[in-house]
Amino acid sequence: QPLGIFGGVVVLLLVLVSIFAGVVAPYEPDEIHLADRLTSTSARYLLGTDHLGRDLLSRLIHGAQISIFVGLAATTLHVLVAVLIGGTSGFFGGKLDLAVQRFVDAWMAFPGLLLLLTIMSIAGQGLLQIIVVLGIAGGIGGSRVIRGTVIGIKENDYFLAARAVGTSTSQILIRHVLPNIMPVVIIIFSINIGGVIIAEASLSFLGFGLPLEIPSWGA
Model's pTM, two decimal places? Predict the structure, then answer.
């Protein structure tokens, strides 16, 4: 698919730029040039400078490194939380499933951005805080997809046969449940990285994300 190839090339370029940010960027992200504050585009500063004279292009390049790191780390936590909550709820069912799903329903009833702003105002700004908040908040909502997949697996003949011959719960989870939810896990991981990066940029833009000294796309 041409559009898929084009998107893959763009993502690959962003990853390469983030890896070699120290080589590609013309200046350090926090390098201050007070004499050149708020300058427009020029041969020296291709995207101009901010109120402290810092090169915006250099901060944008180093911001790619931060954004991709936050996206990968928070999405990994997102998947782990979703598998833990959704897998446990769907596998054991009963009253546990009912209680967990009512909690998930209540959590998803709140507007996402408002909920993130509230939690970040309590947790404070920081790289670790935003990774944990975005990972857990997204994982709770994403657990419903994992739950549905696990419930579907429980209806298959191989699952029922394993139960019939007395296979232990841990063996069923390792041999039959986890391998069969991996395609869904991979899809959840891939489609949520972009959303996490946008969420981090939104929070940083509003002043609730990363500290000002860290170059962020949102800032």
Answer: 0.86
The residues near 82 (Cβ < 8 Å, ≥ 6 apart) are 138, 139, 140, 142, 143, 145, 146, 188
Interval 56-95: pLDDT, tens: 999 999 998 889 999 999 999 999 999 999 999 999 988 9
Distance CA 194, CA 196 (A): 5
Task: Please report which residue ranges of the chain form alpha helices under DSSP H.
Answer: 2-19, 21-24, 56-92, 94-108, 112-123, 127-154, 157-164, 169-172, 178-205
Give Dmax over CA atoms of the chain in angstroms. Answer: 78
Residue 74 near residue 134, CB atoms below 8 Å: yes
CA distances from 144 to 11, 187, 219 (A): 28, 14, 33
